[in-house]
Amino acid sequence: MDFSQFVSGIPAGDYVFQDTPYPQQIQEAAQLLLKADAVLIGAGAGLSTAAGLAYGGRRFTENFGEFIEKYGAAYMTDMYSAGFYPFPSEESKWGYWSKHAWLNRIEPEGLPLYRAVYEVVKDRPHFVLTTNVDHQFWKAGFSDEVIFATQGDYGEIQCEKGCHDRAYDAVPMFRQMNQARRDCLIPSYMVPRCPVCGGNMAMHLRCDQHFVEDSHWNEAAVPESFGGRAVGINADIAGAVRDISEELRKERVIR
Predict the structure, then answer these.
(1) Reading across the β-sheet that carries 126-130, which strands appear in turn?
(2) Which of 1, 72, 82, 151 could bridge to 206 as Cys pair (CB 3.0-4.6 Å)?
(3) Cα separation, 249 vs 253, whole angstroms
(4) SS3 assignment, position 8
(5) Could you tell me if 230 and 39 are in contact, meaning their C-beta atoms sit under 8 angstroms apart?
(6) C-alpha to C-alpha distance for 90 and 183, rounded to whole angstroms
(7) pTM over cut 0.85
């Protein structure tokens, strides 16, 4: 990404005010990475947006035109807001989420920006803390044991009421739903039900108190060895990931 056109083509110098010139910051960051024993990556929505997974604008209107027409432009302003729409039925709810999951989790390959991040850190100890739910770190080459996705995954579903601590792989289901959807709805026979309580299912996303922290979620942790000359890369990360530990806060952070 060209920093000179960081926001809507406006040169960064017109709105970013820093004491240290940007080229110098890049050089300093490169030196920190070269000297680091380990790299801790904190990644939020800004990284995926920069990589091309924009939730609004043309990408939204071109892919969700039928949803905007059906439910109204006042409610369907972007993919994030649309997810909170009070869909009138399970068929309509999964009609939307199957499209959302397909577009942002299933269809995209590992994007160049994520692959570039992997190339920078692949030859040294590294760990990823991310609030992103699009699975891009896995697709870019990062191994499962070095990723902690704190907010869930678009490719998983759980009991809507969290009656048991398990998230389920829903990628094959979403593929089928995406093919069968008509007029924003999926067939009734495709509506998933909780295998334990028989109730509704929901996306495995941290949106309320029922979010399931399953065994895989609980086993994820920053290695204790991350200290000393560790360098943190912060990419517009949410508070849930910023609050790592006081020890790591004292290390150098590249933003």
Answers:
(1) 147-149, 126-130, 39-43, 231-235, 252-254
(2) 151
(3) 8
(4) coil
(5) yes
(6) 14
(7) no
